[in-house]
Amino acid sequence: MRRLPGTRLAWLSMLERIAPPFRPNELTYTLRDELRHLRRPVLLIWGDHDFFAPSWGEELCRYLPEARLKVVADAGHFPWVDEPEHVAVLLRTFLGTGQVP
Fold first, then answer.
1. What is the CA radius of gyration of the chain?
2. Which of 82, 19, 23, 15 is nearest to 47 (CA)?
3. Domains (ranges, CATH) in the chain?
4. Which of 11, 24, 33, 57 reaches 20 to 30 Å from 76, CA-CA?
5. Using CA atoms, how far apart are residues 23 and 96, in angstroms rounded to an integer?
């Protein structure tokens, strides 16, 4: 999707209208304490070109005790759309074994 002309600008414009002040360097997760109690394997799949930097996923992993982050190359905010085969492999492996390839 990120290859479509104007996509990035459209998404950022939408975020400015519907989200609280957008501060990419300040993570304001309000559920941090609740996340610490989640005791299930979690796989976060993040595009390396997402407008929310992969560092956001890294921080989430610090709050989710059993979380793993997989950053997908050449993918934006919707890695399953940009790199469907790669994401399918990640999901099949994770759902089958609880591990990330």
1. 15
2. 82
3. 7-97 (3.40.50.1820)
4. 33
5. 37
Q: Return d(Cα 9, Cα 87) in angstroms, integer.
A: 25
> Hey, what are 23's tokens?
């501060």
For 4, 47, 52, 57, the CA distances from 69, given in Å and listed in that order, are 26, 10, 14, 7
pLDDT in tens, the chain (101 residues): 567 787 777 766 666 666 555 554 444 445 667 778 888 899 999 999 988 889 888 988 888 888 999 999 999 988 998 999 999 999 999 998 877 76
Structure tokens at 62: 């610090």
Helix (H) or strand (E) holding 95: helix 84-97
Residues 6+ apart with CB under 8 A from 16: 22
Whole-structure pTM value = 0.69
